[in-house]
Write a structure and sequence with these properties.
The complex is a heterodimer of chains A (173) and B (168). Chain A is mostly helical. Chain A contains 7 helices and no strands. Chain B is 82% helix and 0% strand. Chain B has helices at 11-22, 28-40, 45-88, 92-120, 124-139, 144-167. Chain B is globular, with a radius of gyration of 20 Å. The chains are: A mainly alpha (173), B mainly alpha (168).
Chain lengths: 173, 168
Amino acid sequence: MNQVPALARVFAYLSLLTIGGGMAAYPEMSELTVGVHRWLTAHQLGHMFGVGQAAPGPNMMVVVSIGSFTAGLPGAVVVFFAFFGPPAVLALVVGRLWTRLRGRPWIVTLERGLTPVSIGLLVAGCLTFAKGAVSGWVTALIALSVFAIVVRTRINPALLVLAGALVGLLALR
Amino acid sequence: MIGGTSFGGGVMAHLRSSLVVRHQWIDDRTFLELLAISQTLPGLNTANMAILIGDRLAGVPGAIAAIAGMCLPGAVLMYSVGVLYNVGQERPLVVAALAGVAPAAVGLIFATTLSLGRRSLSSAADLVFLALTVICVNRLHMSVPRALFVVGGLAVAWYGFQGAAKKR
């Protein structure tokens, strides 16, 4: 229970780092939840994050699992509001201002400059996660095949996560 | 309102086909503009889209309904995952399955990032700034705000000067 205030602080902070997408916050999330607060191990984080890719909605729902894993229902609820609240309010306010600001040169420049950096943050997050999840040729093969299948087809990603679980059961025991 | 029935990287495509094509609540240009705002602001892109579109259609109550519809199904599911994982994490079968799930997720997130990058990157300088950001975070272990400030400042200055030079 006493972890709840810390959970709120950490995930409210992380929520503001998700520029470009959720993965931008992954390196910091792993550092804070695993390294600093020791709420879970790197393995546990990787496992739950993986399952989260099969869940409906935004792909960072793993934050709710970290909350419930660490502090039960109160933890999950607090993390949910801490992680989704601040950006939601910001989006609401900026979304309304945007119609007035759009087209101004400095806005165009700002957007132009931040785009490659935000994608870079996503790639950095993906690499951090990959380092923990891929070890040995079986896992590398799973990652590469899923990547190729998603890029080339329109299959439901949840099925691929399930397929990963099956391969794990057969080959990684 | 907006169903939370879409999975993983497919959320955006699903959102577009349902909002623009099926219900015709907004046009394609508005959709792309809101998408650009979603990506520039902090927050998950899909959650930001829900807020922005919900607000356009029905004000603050619309925004709240939209983000709830988008997030709650997944949140409830992942709450249970956290609880169940507490109980079952040491069973060998669970560990083996999850060891396969994690790399599958790696493939998914790289594919999602690639499609986002293809859509939004357009010049060689973009790739340089992208690489610089990765190096700052992964090699130099900079925090995200610092990397954003350093490389972001550099990139904005670069495109700012370019814009000014073009005008002359």
